[in-house]
Amino acid sequence: MRGIATIGVQYPGRLERYQEPFITDVETCARVLAPLIAEVDAGNLAFFGHSLGALIAFETALLLDASGFNIPTLFLSGHEWQDSPCADQLYVSTDETLLHAVREMGGPGIALFEQQEFRELVFPILRADLMMAERYICREHKIFHGNLYVIAGDVDPYIDQHKLERWEKQCRGKFQLSFFPGGHFYLEDNLTNLADNITGALSL
Fold this sequence. Notes:
- This is Thioesterase domain-containing protein.
- By secondary structure, this protein is an alpha/beta fold.
- It folds into 2 domains: 1-83 and 137-204, Alpha/Beta hydrolase fold, catalytic domain (Rossmann fold, 3-Layer(aba) Sandwich), CATH 3.40.50.1820; 86-135, no CATH class.
- It has helices at residues 26-38, 52-66, 95-105, 116-135, 161-165, 191-202, and strands spanning 46-50, 73-77, 147-153, 175-180.
- A 4-stranded parallel β-sheet has the order 1-2-3-4, with helices on both faces.
């Protein structure tokens, strides 16, 4: 995005952090990330998180906000407000059930899951992520004081629009809900428009 520097977050247990144990709780992950992000000299910092990343971004922003580190803008993508653990506990399902769920969801690199070696490498990571997402509860008293932009695909089967709108009660600043054409991985076909959307919001 022109004029905006992007900084990625790498969770423990992945790539260069592969020797570190997985984190299986959203709030724990936020507590690990918040002090690291507080050390970043990035000026006007905003968060963007998709799916599980949206929950982690929200909780991390709350911790930084409470410590006096201002995060004025938060973009939550592809995840509704969640007031109870998910009924479907895929993180404890069989490999066969998990593979079926992955096939249904689709997304980038989906063909790789047909290879057993790849599944053996990735499924432990996926289960840790699912454990975080499926057990998460957003408490009503958790309020973000900046501007909150919620984004989703307009045919995402994992999204309830009313629960997307419910995010508004978790912020004190401006709230905006936007939809792009597509499902859970709408980002693949809308990167340019999404970047324009984010850039426009940050320029206000």
